[in-house]
Each structure stands twice: as C-alpha cells, then as structure tokens.
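Example 3.2
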Amino acid sequence: MNKGVYVALLSIGLAQGLKIPIHYYKKKEWRPELFFQTGGMPSSHSAGVSSLTTFIALRRGVPTIDFALSLVYGLIVMYDAQGIRRQTGELTLKVNDLDDLMDKVQHEETVKFEEKSPDKLKEMLGHQPEEVLGGALLGILTGTLGHVLTKKDRKMSKFKVKFRG
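Structure, written as tokens:
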C-alpha cells in the first residue's frame, strides 16, 4: 500500500487514541469508547489530511498537483469538521433538550399523552477550532516523521537497484 496512506491512517489512529488521555486530563473521567467516536481533541480528520498533505509536500514537492489536491481537500475537510459538523452537533444538543421540555409540558397537561422515547442523538459530531488546529499540528508532525522514516527506505532501494546489475 501507498506509504502516504499508512502515514495518514497512523495519524488518524494516533489522534483517536489521544482523545482518551486528553479527556481524562480535562474531566477526570476514563472513557476508552472515545477512540471510536467523532469530535473531541484532537481532530482525527484534521490529523489525517494534514499528515498526508505534509507527507506529499516533503516527498513530491509543493509545486505538484498531488500537493495541490491534498491541500484543497484537507482545507475542505477541516472547514467542514469545525463548521458544518460542529453546527450540526450544537443543533443536536437543542433537539435532545426538547425531550426534557416535552416531559415538563406533559406533567402540566391534564390530557394523557404517551410519548415513545427515542434514542438521544449523538451530540459530539464536529470540532471546536482549537481541536481542528490540534489535529492539524499532530498531522504535520506525523507527516514529517513518516517522511523522515520512509526516506531511508527510498535511499536503500535506489542503492539496491544500482548494484544489481
């Protein structure tokens, strides 16, 4: 598989894994299920796209179409993560609060009203700007490390090709 894909996936996994100790540090609450959830610090979306963009920039160069595609795609993903998805999460908070409001209305009414309780909507969908920035910085670090670590592989394969025949 493409080394850029490995670097991006590693960065996403690392960001997801870091959410657990960061949450514990902030809230004193151990929640390993955060590894499989969206939202939170750092943004794995930002980490993934920025690590791939950094890896491409260092490997292929900034003036390439590869870098341009990755950069534009990454900016769209990060904008979406902190913009539209965050707004959706905030709207979901309000929708979930409607259940409590309905309970209050129901208790004050004399008419018998039976409501089925739906599952609460997931409230943590998007990211705050600092979570996106944290993910982007993690991605840049991971992309740089991925490039440095795989750079030795490239030199060795060129060396083997020269001396084979």
